[in-house]
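Field notebook, page 242. I keep forgetting to write these up properly, so this time I am using the form the group agreed on. The chain and the ligand, nicotinamide-adenine-dinucleotide, are recorded exactly as supplied. Prediction of the bound pose follows.
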Amino acid sequence: MTALVTGAGSGIGEAIALRLARDGHRVAVNDLHLEAAQNTAARINAAGGQARAYAADVSDEASVAAMMDRVRAEMGAPGILVNNAGFGHQALFLDIAPADFDRIFAVHVRGTFLMTRACLPAMLERGAGHVVNVASQLGQIGGVELAHYSGAKAAIIGLTKSLAREVSARGVRVNAVAPGPINTPLVRALSEEWKREKRAGLPLGRFGEPEEVAGAVSFLVSPDAALFVGQTLGPNSGDVML
Ligand code: NAD
């Protein structure tokens, strides 16, 4: 099956792409940055998998349409879509510029909408498919200086549940993961003080690794997860227990 992973040039997306390739899927590796996508695709191909790199901005309708035309022609319509592309931004509520608010929602929410809209028709036609959205535990509990980011991630969880209600009976399973702090460039950029305090407060006592989120995604798209519909799994070191 062809799996398309967005934002797969780094961090969690890269680990998901590598894992799905190891699980036997052909992988369309998307990123905003072509070189990053190419690096991930090269790692997959070097390990004996099958991958191609595609640069596109998931928040841009024309960019998504052009990428999807190429993916369909070169790899076949994706049976698995992982909406992972994203970025972090912190500011106190009154300091969030409208442009920063719009960009967070554009990449995370509109990007998830546009990519899913592009991939869903072929899945429905086939009567089979998987969508996994990468949310965040911040979409469940909120965070100081993160109203825009948390709001966008909460929107992704709502979108996941609504779409799952619409399409599950037609063979398409839609789920989300809401990671806690994961050791990626996004988190490595945060202050040492924040990381020390955060780590100390985690029941597991450590941040997650990208591969550990990839394992949850691999499970969600496997037959073992047949009963998981509209769920949000929490690979979060015990930070949030629902
Ligand atoms: P990362 O910065 O390592 O990787 C994100 C990738 O997405 C980058 O390669 C970037 O170029 C790409 N990207 C950004 N905007 C894009 C766009 N418009 N179109 C296509 N690609 C785009 O970050 P990460 O930590 O691996 O985060 C991946 C996802 O996981 C994000 O959605 C993030 O919000 C979420 N997340 C991360 C953590 C964490 O602790 N790292 C926790 C919870 C959720």
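OBSERVATIONS:
- The chain has one domain: 2-181+210-233.
- Residues 6-7, 9-13, 30-33, 36, 57-59, 84-87, 107, 111, 134, 136, 179, 181-182, 184-187 surround nicotinamide-adenine-dinucleotide (CB under 6 Å).
FOLLOW-UP: compare against the apo run.
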